[in-house]
Design goal:
Length: 263
């Protein structure tokens, strides 16, 4: 059960409701909760009274509230690379014409904090604000590759290693070998590891001292290009990552972003 007293319990409930990705009934939250029915009901009522959740009496469902949206917007502006990186992401997107992602690590997962669609968009998992696995995404692997050894160990220990496709890395040994290769060349790939037909090349965004702030990627499909074609973007990806890092030099990011636990 979540610690942190009443606040921790309320945040756990908020996470669960938001995690459904749709309006959710009390019975559905209860089925996934460790809390007794009266406790869960009380927490949901408190969150609703504080506008963190909204209750629809007709459908009898809960969904994230407007206050949560305001807080999320403030976090996006103040606690991520998004605003600093925006002009650089725009320029990269215009230059390559493919999907561009900006991501950071949040505990053991990747959070996509910005995205630019390709000239001919393709439906894919990633969206700004969405969370994905670190071990089978290009951005996740490059951020992990350049983390300090203790952080790498902590993050790998929390990976599920679920097989999404035939090329997904499914154990810590193969992931560590991949991270070594990424460190040697300075960038990484997603070889259809998370979604069939989706490939990417990713580059870490690092400070002068080597601390990882995030990652950027150019993503395409196997029907449009191949890994060699994506590799031609290495120079512009490198320049873009360096420009973002330079602009972020005097910006203070919360320590949990990129700490042990964004193709």
């Amino acid at each position: 059960m979540t610690g942190g007293g009443t606040v921790g319990k309320a945040l756990d409930v908020l996470d669960r409701v938001a995690g459904f990705g749709r309006p959710v009934r009390f019975s559905e939250v209860l089925a996934q909760s460790d809390f007794p029915k009266p406790t869960l009901y009380r927490l949901l009522q408190t969150l609703t009274n504080q506008d963190m959740l909204v209750y629809d009496p007709d459908r009898q469902t809960y969904s994230p509230g407007i206050r949560l949206l305001r807080l999320a917007h403030a976090a996006w502006e103040q606690s991520t690379l998004a605003l600093i990186a925006r002009p650089h992401i725009d320029a990269l997107s215009a230059a390559v014409g493919e999907t561009v992602h900006l991501a950071q690590l949040d505990h053991a997962q990747v959070i996509y904090i910005d995205k630019r669609n390709a000239n001919n968009p393709v439906q894919m998992f990633s969206q700004a604000g969405k969370v994905g696995p670190a071990y089978c995404t290009g951005v996740g692997k490059v951020m992990l590759a350049f983390a300090d050894p203790a952080r790498i160990d902590a993050v790998i220990a929390q990976q599920s290693f679920h097989r999404f496709t035939s090329t997904t890395l499914t154990d810590s040994r193969s992931l560590r070998a991949e991270l070594t290769a990424i460190r040697a060349r300075g960038y990484g790939f997603d070889r259809e590891e998370h979604e069939p037909g989706i490939i990417c090349i990713a580059m870490p965004i690092r400070t002068d001292t080597g601390r990882v702030l995030g990652a950027i990627s150019v993503t395409s499909t196997t029907g449009r290009t191949d890994l060699a074609g994506l590799e031609s973007y290495v120079p512009i990806l490198s320049d873009t990552a360096a420009a973002i890092a330079k602009d972020a030099r005097n910006w203070s990011f919360p320590e949990h972003i990129g700490a042990p636990m964004g193709s």
